[in-house]
Amino acid sequence: MSTIDIEIQLIAVVVAVSCALPGVYLVLRRMAMMSDAISHTVLLGIVLAFFVTGDIASPLLIIAAAATGMLTVTLVESVRGTRLVTQDAAIGLVFPALFSIAVILISRYAGDVHLDTDAVLLGELAFAPFTRLEVGGVDLGPKTLYVMGGVLLLNVGFIITFYKELKLTTFDAALAASLGFSPVLLHYAFMGLVSVTAVGAFDAVGSVLVVALMIVPPAGAYLLTEKLRWMIVLSALLGASSALAGYWVAWVADASIAGSIASVTGAQFLLIFLLAPERGVIAQSMRRARQRVEFAQLMLAIHLLNHEGTPEAERESRESELHEHLRWSPKFVARIVRLAEREELIEREAGGLRLTPAGRAVARSAIAA
Amino acid sequence: MDAGRLLHDLFFDYTLRTVALGAMALGVVSGTLGAFAVLRRQSLLGDAISHAALPGIVLAFMFTGAKDPLWLVVGAAVAGWLGALTVMWIVRQSRLPEDTALGIVLSVFFGIGLVLLTYVQREPTASQAGLNTFLFGQAATLVVDDVIVIAVLGSVALGVVALFWKEFKLLSFDREFGKSLGIGMRGIDVLLTTVLVIAIVIGLQTVGVVLMSAMVVAPAAAARQWTDSLGVMVVLSAVFGALGGVTGAVASSTAAGIPTGPAIVLAVTMVVVLSIALAPRRGLVWEWVRHKRNQQTVRTGAVLTDLYALASHHKERGHGHKLAVLQAMDARRGGVRRTLDVLASRGLAARAADDTWSLTEQGEQEARAEIARREGDDA
User: Fold this and answer.
1) What is the pLDDT of residue B249?
2) Taking CA atoms, what residue in B is nearest to A101?
3) pLDDT tens digit sequence for B250-259
4) What residues 30-49 of chain A have any CB closer than 8 A to a CB of chain B?
5) Are residues A93 and A48 both part of a single domain?
6) What angle do CA B45, B268, A114 make, to 5 degrees?
7) Which of B44, B94, B107 comes nearest A216 by C-beta?
8) Domains of chain B, earliest start first
9) Torsion angle, alpha carbons of A284, A287, A292, A294, to 10
10) Which of B218, B200, B193, B144 has the alpha carbon at shortest distance from B26?
11) Residue A303 belongs to a domain with what CATH number?
12) Is the backbone of residue B242 left (phi > 0), alpha (psi -120 to 50) or beta?
């Protein structure tokens, strides 16, 4: 493994973790698609700042890009504030418009400069190490690593400092306001953070991977834990691991690194979605099947209890006719009877089924409840 | 280029005519389907679908080895459809909110598309021009075959909407009621989503992956401002979509370096801005006028009753009162002089030579009526 390989992986991990941290709150606040909007509109800021400075490497570009991120948030909020369109439509109106302006500006006035819309959308992590940070002729490493390292520190600092406030405004904005926190101020500060992260990251990995890294790992973490603290840690771990795995997939398959990382986050999410211990699809359907069986046993016990000691008791408790009374399929009846018998809720008699004392107690308490 | 020349070209210039026709057709289709998407608060589903289409496009390209419009559209539709169903699946099976599901599908499918794209771009013989246009759209590459594909698939989509109008309406406004009628609403949901997928993929070549979502949202959001009826909204939305499509296509053909997709998106965005500002009853301008008018009614009422209160302290109605007194009574709200002028112009108040003000007979009646109204409100 050459130095370049190590540097690319380092950058990928730093980008992944920096994106996953604010991503947690985007998912919880139901603003996931703002990441999509912001990661596209920052292009407009970059283009405008480029026209002013004429220098593609100017730090002003990053500031302007972050400012357009904020502009996007403000515009979406004010379009929604008219109450004439819903929030989702507001996002769907604002970001394509701003992005369109950027694309037209680029193709009309900056066609021959290194401001390639393809590169912006797709990103190419493989080229990131080629821009070096040099101080006094000494090579300190890839510039992106320093930029994203700074963004990562900023994100960690912000989340630690405002952990309580963020938690409160995320889960109970009304309570936060009544306690004297300004949810609006924190909202804008947080969206500023998202903008800065998106700007730093999309330069390295393209805007679509920014969305993948911000949304997919936190979404997976959300299915694994109930605790915010753990969700943050898990998101960072999931993001970092898919960055590494994605790099190696790209290396083996000789394909786009950004695309591979996004694909790996997807595969990772799919596994969690299916296999998560509590909330996974498989765990849920197993739980549902178990509940169905338990409920059916209860129904059977209540049915027998209802007819106990009545003239029709013999007919109602005949196993061969139960499917008529309970409107179940004969096969299901057989299965439930077998299970109820095994759990000693019922027992077989000459004519049919009879409740055991335990089964009677269960049925009685279910009716009483 | 002057307007007459442009109009001439629009009808007789082969390229422009083809492009404008294609853009118009897709504007009609995406406008129609967008109306349902916006009403169902699924504006961003279009964004997810168009991004999710990428792997399908690339795979179709890899298998057919050529830029055959029909196969690319089919590939896009299959992948976009899978993406849309995945969104539904995630939302139904987990506690993740819909926007997160959209973000997941959008970025992961697009990422898979990127991986596949690397293989295509490596083949030296393959012409990738056709693929690159899918990202940002390039209507100039539209040929008659493309327009035929758009028209045929678009007609199918519109036909389904006409056929299932009642069901789609139920789905948009009262899903539970539909279920109680015995209609399989989940099936209807899948059907409407499928048609939306068709509407989106036929626009990809013209408008591009990133911006196609705007073609779904913008015409519908604009149309919503003008009406409360679904039928009118759908028709208006289709008209706005067509208008934006043609305007954008023409704009991009007249000036160099204006890609079609962004031009069309800006055109429909303008329609939205105008609609939000000007639409009767709902529009912002209308709302502002109403606000001002209310404000004035309140102001004139206040000054009128002040004058009446002053007059009741004097024997004769015509006794003049100084502006300063009225201003003091009005307590820091300002604009008393202007309000008095309004009252005078309506013949309710009169100004004497010494710059004092008094009620006219009509004004006195009006003031009594105003006070009676207020007491009625308080009671």
Assistant:
1) 85
2) B262
3) 888 777 778 8
4) 30-33, 35-36, 40
5) yes
6) 80
7) B107
8) 3-278 (1.10.3470.10), 285-378 (1.10.10.10)
9) -170
10) B200
11) 1.10.10.10
12) alpha
Q: Is the pLDDT of residue A169 over 80?
A: yes
Containing structural domain, residue A64? 3-279
Confidence of residue A283 (pLDDT cuts 50, 70, 90): very high
Residues of B in contact with A109 (CB under 8 A): 257
A157 interface with B at CB cutoff 8 Å? no
CB B156 within 8 A of CB B29: no
Q: pLDDT digits over B282-336, tens only?
A: 888 888 888 888 888 888 888 888 888 888 777 776 777 887 787 777 776 677 8
- The minimal CB distance from B211 to the residues A32, A33, A100 is found for A100
Same domain, A332 and A191: no
Q: In what order do the strands lie in the sheet with B356-359?
A: B321-322, B356-359, B349-351
Helix or strand or coil: residue B171? helix
CA distance B218 to chain A (A): 6
Q: Which of A244, A279, A314 is the last residue of a domain?
A: A279
Determine whether the interchain pair B47/A266 forms a contact, defined as Cβ–Cβ distance below 8 Å. no
Cα(B213)–Cα(B137) distance, integer angstroms:
13
Q: What are phi and psi of B351, to 5 degrees?
A: -110, 130
Q: Which of residues 310-329 of A touch B (CB under 8 A)?
A: none
- Residue A178, pLDDT > 90, answer no
- A66 and A212, same domain (yes or no): yes
Window 49-108 of A: residues touching B by CB (8 A cutoff) are 79, 82, 84-86, 88-89, 91-93, 96-97, 99-101, 103-104, 107-108
Q: Which residues of A touch B41 (CB under 8 A)?
A: 86, 88-89
Give the alpha-carbon dihedral of B237, B239, B244, B246, to 10 degrees.
Answer: 150
* A209 shares a domain with A145: yes
Contact by Cβ (8 Å): B65, B194: no
3-state secondary structure of B210: coil
Interface test mutation site (partner A, options B82, B87, B104, max chain A beta carbons within 10 A): B104
Residue B205, token pair as written in the block: 């070549």
A148 and A189 inside one domain: yes
- Six token digits for residue A83: 């109450």
CB contact under 8 A, B214 and A96: yes
Same domain? A38 vs A186: yes
> Is the ipTM of this structure higher than 0.90?
no
CB spacing of A281 vs B94 below 8 angstroms? yes
- Determine the distance in angstroms separating the CA of B316 from the nearest CA of chain A, rounded to an integer: 51
**Cβ atoms of residues B303 and B363 within 8 Å:** no
Query: Which residues in chain B have Cβ-Cβ distances shorter than 8 Å to A42?
Result: none
Name the nearest CA neighbour of B246 among B19, B29, B7.
Answer: B19
CA of B288 vs chain A CAs: smallest distance (Å): 12
Q: What is the DSSP letter of A132?
A: E
Q: Which element (helix H / strand E) includes A190?
A: helix A183-205
With CA atoms as reference, the chain B residue closest to A269 would be: B104
Residue ending a domain, choose from A279, A311, A331: A279
Q: What is the CATH number of the domain that holds A245?
A: 1.10.3470.10
Find the CB nearest B94 among A100, A122, A273. Answer: A273
